Amino acid sequence: MSMRIDLCGGFGEKGRTSVAVSGGDRRILLDAGIKVGASGAEYYPVLPADVGDIDAVLISHAHEDHVGALSWLLAQGYRGRILMTAETREEASATLDAYAEPDDFKRFPLPEERIELFEPGDSLIIGGLTIATGRSGHVVGGVWFAVDDGSRKVVYSADVVPDSSVFVMDSMPRCDLLVFDASYGADPVSGTARAQAIAEWVAARPGGCLLPTPLSGRSLELMAILDGPFAIHASMRASLAVQIEARAALHPTMVPQLRQRLAKAIDWHDGDALPACPLLADDGMGKAGPSAMLLPLADAAGYPILLSGHLPAASPGDVLHAAGRADWIRMPTHPTLSGSLAIWEGAGRPTAFGHSCPPGMLAELAPHMPSLRTGLRTGDSYTLAA
C-alpha cells in the first residue's frame, strides 16, 4: 500500500496551512488554517475529499494560519476526532473568534467537549497510523507531527524554531518525506542578529514605540530582548504568565528572567496615554486584538511602530509599512537558512516540500537543498510508494 499526501493549504503561498495524510486505512488532516487577506474559497484549505472521509484532525498550535478554519470545517459537516495540546485548546477559541466566519463561529464554536488532549512527546494511534509528536520551539504547546504507517514516515513540521532563545524544539526523526516550515526561504540572517537589530531600534526611540505581536510565541521572544521598562496591553498579562510557567516548553534559564520582566511590565489599558516605553499589543498584523485599535492610534499620534512578523497583503500592518509609516524588522519565529538545512540533514536528506513560502523564495532555497520539490502547490497530491 502507498501513502498519499494531499497539500491542502500553504504551498506556493503563506496561510491556510493544512496537509492530509492517507495511509494505514485512515485519513488524517494536519492543521486547518485560514489565509489572511484572501476571501471566498481561497480563505480555506482545499480538502482532498468529503469531510466525512477524514478520520481525525490534529492541530499543531493555535495561530490563525493553522487552526482558523476549524469552525468552517465543522460547518462543512466534520464530525471526527479533534486532537491538540491543552495550550492550543486554551488559545484556539480566541483565534477562531477573530478569524473564523462569524456565522460559522456562532454555530460551531470550539467544541471543547470533543477535543482529545495530548502532550508534546506523546505518540498517537489512529487506525494503522502512529503519529509521533515533539515540541516545536515556536509557541508553548506547539508541536510537529511524524506520521508512520509501518513502512513509510512523513514528518510535517508545522511552524518550528530550531534556534529560539526562549522555546525548546525537539529534534525531528529521519523520514521518507519532510514537509517543513520554509517561511523565510533562504534568509541567512540569524535570529540573534535580528534580535540585536530590534533591540537597537527600540533603544533609539526612548519616547516609546508600539510593538504589535502575536499573543503566543513572539511576545516572549520580544520580552527576552527588552532590557529596559516596557508596557503590555493589560489583556495579555494572564496569557503571558501561563506561557512563562509552562516550563517544559521553555529553556530553563529563561523562566526566571521572563517571570521577572513580566512582573515589572506596565499594564496599559484602552484610553491610557501612549507610554514613554515600548508597548506590546496583540496581534502582530493589526487585524484583530488590541493592535487593531492601537495601530491607527499610534499612527495618528506619530508614535513609532515596529512590525516584526509576516504581513499579509493589505493587512493594516502592511498598509502602514508600505506607506513608510511603520518600520519592519523580522523577529525570527521560523527557521532561517541554517535551521532549515539542519532539519533536512537531521531527517536524512529526504524528499522535501516547503510550506508557508511563496514560489520565488522557495526557489532561492532549492540550490541549498537538492531534494526540495519547488513546483508543488496547494491542491496538489503526492504518492509515497512503499
From TrEMBL:
<protein>
    <submittedName>
        <fullName>Beta-lactamase</fullName>
    </submittedName>
</protein>
<dbReference type="Pfam" id="PF12706">
    <property type="entry name" value="Lactamase_B_2"/>
</dbReference>
<dbReference type="GO" id="GO:0004521">
    <property type="term" value="F:RNA endonuclease activity"/>
</dbReference>
<dbReference type="InterPro" id="IPR001279">
    <property type="entry name" value="Metallo-B-lactamas"/>
</dbReference>
<dbReference type="InterPro" id="IPR050698">
    <property type="entry name" value="MBL"/>
</dbReference>
<keyword id="KW-0614">Plasmid</keyword>
<feature type="domain" description="Metallo-beta-lactamase">
    <location>
        <begin position="15"/>
        <end position="201"/>
    </location>
</feature>
<dbReference type="InterPro" id="IPR036866">
    <property type="entry name" value="RibonucZ/Hydroxyglut_hydro"/>
</dbReference>
